[in-house]
Amino acid sequence: MLRKWWHDKIAYQIYPKSFLDTNGDGIGDLPGIISKLDYLKALGVDIIWLSPIYQSPFVDQGYDIADYYAIAEEFGTMEDFDALLAETKKRDMAVIMDLVINHCSDKHIWFQKALADPEGEYADYFYIRDGKDGCPPSNLRSYFGGSCWEPIPGTGKYYFHMFAKEQPDLNWENPAVRHELYAMINWWLEKGLAGFRIDAIINIKKDLDFPSFAPDGPDGLAACWKMVDSVNGVGDLLEDLKNHTFRHYNAFTVGEVFNMKEAELPAFIGEDGHFSTIFDFSAHCLSNGEHGWYDAPPISFENWRRAIFESQLKVQKVGFEANIIENHDEPRGVSRFLPAWAQNDAGAKMLGTVSLLLRGIPFIYQGQELGMTNNNWHSIDEFEDINTLDQYRTALEAGLSEEEALAVCARCSRDNARTPIPWTDGPCAGFTTGTPWLPLNENASALNAASQENDPASTLSYYRRLTALRKSQEWREVFTYGRFEPAYEDEPAIMAYCRVMDGTRVLVAANFGRDTVTLRPDYTIKRVLLSNRPTEPENTLTLKSCDVIVAECCLS
Ligand code: NOJ
Question: Which residue among the candidates 80, 150, 256, 415 is catalytic per the annotation?
Fold first, then answer.
């Protein structure tokens, strides 16, 4: 396998709005990020992914871009951004930005021009179609609820949007659109950006007939991903994108890809794939409800472990995936993937260990290194996320009570991951001197960075040891390129695997159960490299509840 500069890196996602506010407006900003670069360096971070910081009306928190060349004033200025690039470079860190090019904002000048003249040049930057007998052109339902088609007043025409109506989809079949987007991407790469996280990219290929599908809900609509599933040819567009941009800069690209056809994995992340890597969402998809969050199935330990193992075994034949516990679209992993008895410091360390030592590129989401949990939510009015508000309505329409619908949102909402980072136990957890744009977690006075900073037993200190181990001279190679081998699959509460390379074998074993387990002596431990056990690690395969060990070993 050809070695790439990003293979052995650790990435960290920043959701700028919630990271650190330095001007008291209640919204995180670029100077806040710059002030924490040493914190990130100490955490072992090499690559920082910034969720969108472009100019935006923030209908979908910045995933609706009004100007691809401008920094949102909420976050700072282009000078701040340049300073961030310079400061990261000094620390030998790289920055990637979110690239949101399936759609833009309805406030983008292209869309404004399209609306002003729905027959003109800019109309062809979007998908604008005539209605059918006074109805939308097809029955697709957007990801955020309601029809994918929004009427253009006074015209009998509609425009297409797979997300909110304020996020019109860009017409990728139009070479002028592609040309504009490629020029913009190259402009950022010329500035010194190391690459991009690429948003919702599988959706760029449309079926230009925009057919209707069998309704799958009481609204008579059908989920728009069904069109994505049914259409071929996204690969041609993605190759075109890569060849006009990323390829020339040796950029690191990580695709947000759902609904990929399995046989296409090599085309996506193989040696010369469309992207460097894509996120592994296999465990997260286990809780996809058929109709929404309200019928989301619970995730059993067994299914979670199987999903990860299957994915690791499949992907290692082809390339690298990016491993996450959580991101800005998911609830906190500690609250989601750990059983009730493990939702504590030891559990957070255990979950972090088994995730970060998988084969692939680990992405830590801000606050994960502190063991942040979901928040307690008391009213639907506390949420800001457009998707959460839609899911609340959907749950009510399906017959749930207000209390039940709130409980669904409290469990599944993306806002769980978007609450501000608690830096201290002071006012507003040191996040802002103003009013935070989203409530702080109720546990912020106990769970915050300052209280963990100098405590060797804290989750933060443990994460530092974990990343240091992964990147150490001695073990970097096996954790980067070592084969993934499942272990103890017959043990119902144990998540265990080996990373194996040449003569080296490292066992990672964690006890997600309530009871102590003594593992079969399949392996002989030579040396324990890391463990979350409070006392000095012993060379033993007896794991108490929430214990995790990482050990150099050999087959017995
Ligand atoms: C995926 C992003 O991660 C999410 O936050 C956003 O709402 C949609 N794409 C639309 O851009």
Answer: 256
The predicted pLDDT at position 313 comes to 98
Q: Apex CA 371: angle with CA 367 and CA 377, to 5°? A: 80
- Exposure string of 39-48, with b = 16+ CB inside 10 Å and e = fewer, is ebeebbbbbb
Cβ–Cβ < 8 Å for 24, 432: yes
Query: Which amino acid is residue 72, in one-letter code?
Result: A
Residues 6+ apart with CB under 8 A from 111: 104, 105, 122, 125, 126, 168
The structure tokens 């679209």 sit at 329
Closest of 250, 158, 165 to residue 210, by C-alpha: 158
* pLDDT tens by residue, 291-301: 999 999 999 99
Q: Which atom of ligand 1 is least distant from the CA of 163?
A: 10
What stretches in the chain show pLDDT beneath 50? none
Give me the DSSP letters along 11-53.
EEEE-GGGT--SSSSSS--HHHHHHTHHHHHHTT--EEEEPP-
256 is known as an active-site residue: yes
Task: Please tell me the predicted confidence (pLDDT) of residue 534.
Answer: 83
Protein residues with CB under 6 Å of any ligand 1 atom: 60, 63, 100, 163, 199-200, 256, 328-329
pLDDT confidence of residue 1:
82
Angstrom distance (rounded) from CA 284 to CA 59: 25
Q: Who contacts 362 (Cβ-Cβ below 8 Å, separation ≥6)? A: 10, 11, 322, 323, 355, 356, 470
Q: Ligand 1: which of 13, 54, 59, 100 to mutate, judged by most atoms within 8 Å of the beta carbon?
A: 100
Question: Is residue 199 among the annotated active site residues?
Answer: yes
List all residues 6 or more positions away from 215 whose beta carbon is below 8 Å from its beta carbon: 139, 221, 222
Extended strands (E) in 417-516: 483-487, 494-501, 504-511
Task: Please name every residue paired with 293 in a beta bridge, in sequence order, or none if there are none.
Answer: none
- What pLDDT was estimated at residue 539? 77
d(CA 29, CA 18): 8
pLDDT digits (tens, 9 = 90+) for 396-409: 999 999 999 999 99
Q: How far apart are CA 233 and CA 235, in angstroms?
A: 5
